[in-house]
Amino acid sequence: MTEHRPVLAVIGAGPAGLAGALAAAARGVRVVLIDSATEAGGQFYRQPAKGLGARRPQALHHQWRTWERLRAGLDTHLAAGRITHLSDRHVWCVERKSSGFSVHALIGPEQEESVAVRADGVLLATGGYEKVLPFSGWTLPGVVTAGGAQALLKGGLVLPGRTAVVAGTGPLLLPVATGLAAAGAQVVALVESAGPRDFTRRARTWAGAPAKLAEGAVCAAQLLRQRVSVMTRHVVVEAHGTERLEAVTVAALDSEGRPAPGTQRRIACDTLAVGHGLLPHTDLAEGLGCRLDGPSVRVDDEQRTDVPGVWAAGEATGIGGSALSLAEGHIAGRSAAARLTDTVPDPREWAPAARARTRLRSFFAALDAAYAARPVRWTEQVTDETVVCRCEEVTAGAVREAVGALGAGDLRTVKLLTRAGMGWCQGRMCEPGVAGVAGCTLTPARRLLARPVPLGVLAAPADPTAPQ
């Protein structure tokens, strides 16, 4: 009779998911690694399609040696049968059952069929997604998110345009600007709404993370070599063009976070890569009933959620970069392996990862505070004609009318009155912008399904099976 080995489903094959999968597999647990991409690596280690024949993919990445170690570890466990990697699987629901969990995932690019995998435990390593804020002209072709520009470069080996402005706020802008410049784009400006003074006040915190300081210094040196104009305490107020983007107007911010009169400047470009930070991807956690702390999944020192048998790691528990994701994933994998085999975990075994987690959480908390030190009054610049929900083509004026004339006081009511958030993305992209324009609190939607699912799949879901 074959001895049953517990199965851990790891959802997401980025840094946190890979670290968790490797740690659990090395300790006797069968791991099913489920990911929407065709190759492991997640957004941070996004790999170009094999058919493109990339000769030096490491030129597009930071920390390539870390990726090589993760890839080698994954290959070893795959060959030994300790990890099953299900790629091109889009998880839409994790169902709690008396005997464990059923993880439901749509298959391939068509996403018309679903498979279900039975597991004894689940590690949510679902990452984060970009926060998008509307402004006049943001729907023009040529305006992309900062992460979208990076994905095109890493995954498709293509530039989104030849002359680029990178704008918004947050630590993602630096590597996006340097990556585009290194690949041959002319980055004419990096427009950051935060200012140097917001960072110098926290010098002690930066000194505690020398690796991050070095990484930032390298990016700054590359921008200097490429002669990229860095404009701090500035913001893009409008994108211009007819058929596609032709130019952007930027302005300096005053002490109140408003564009200062007389500081507007028009910059010609065919690409605007814009980002306003990241948000944790918590749809699956919300569907399971996991408790949230603000926008992030709440976890304990073992990365356990308050739902028994469910762990979470990486950006889903708070945006903090790849190094923090690796530390959290390692801890979660070790904890899951112990708990699923009825062993009491020994935190001393992951003490170095726990110390790194503490240090990096402190660093990124200070980083978030620095970027948010002087808020930008961006909603005042959004005209009534500006589309805020692209799927349903809802304008800011319609949202303001729902609040001012019709009495909407929360996002759900705004959605019912205007259809903002009822499109394909179900508000995942437009919610921050709609909430800002409406003056409503951005609250978790508590969706049962994490992505759109064909009715045929809902009518006849696949029977859950254990990995072979």
TrEMBL record:
It comes from Streptomyces asoensis. Pfam families: Fer2_BFD (PF04324), Pyr_redox_2 (PF07992). Residues 387-435 form the BFD-like [2Fe-2S]-binding domain. Keywords: Oxidoreductase. GO terms for molecular function: oxidoreductase activity. This is FAD-dependent oxidoreductase. Gene3D superfamilies: BFD-like [2Fe-2S]-binding domain, FAD/NAD(P)-binding domain. Residues 8-317 form the FAD/NAD(P)-binding domain.
